[in-house]
What does this fold into?
Amino acid sequence: MPVAIGLSPGRWTNVKSLLRAAISLVREISPGRHLTPLSPLWQRLWGRLPTRLQKMRLSGLMHFASVAGLDPKAITVEIFKKFRDHLDASLLKDPDKTYCATIGGFRAARRMVAGWPNVEISRPDRGKLWTLPWSAQQKFQSLCEGID
It folds into this structure.
């Protein structure tokens, strides 16, 4: 929280804006708002999304694809990976959460919107593993059998 370090919310917003401007001088980053319009094909699909929530979830991907000149038929798992990299290069508070929300919105739109890209996208596994995979456990066990 900005108040914890003695900054007002307005000043904190200015600091983030100035930081974004400074970083953009040395590398390409995502703008805070989408400054370019959607391509006509994406705009057509945008109009078919039934809820504001779905539009919010898919806005980033749709603008990313529009800027890259990708029509909806060009969307692949690889494009999603590039979109994830794009989110990581932005100054989002939680790019992982945004990416998972985009996938959820994409999967829902795929079921409900006629003409939506038919690409199977799965959510990344965000669970923490506390054990070794079974194959590694068996290998470890065989190594330990000869030790007394």
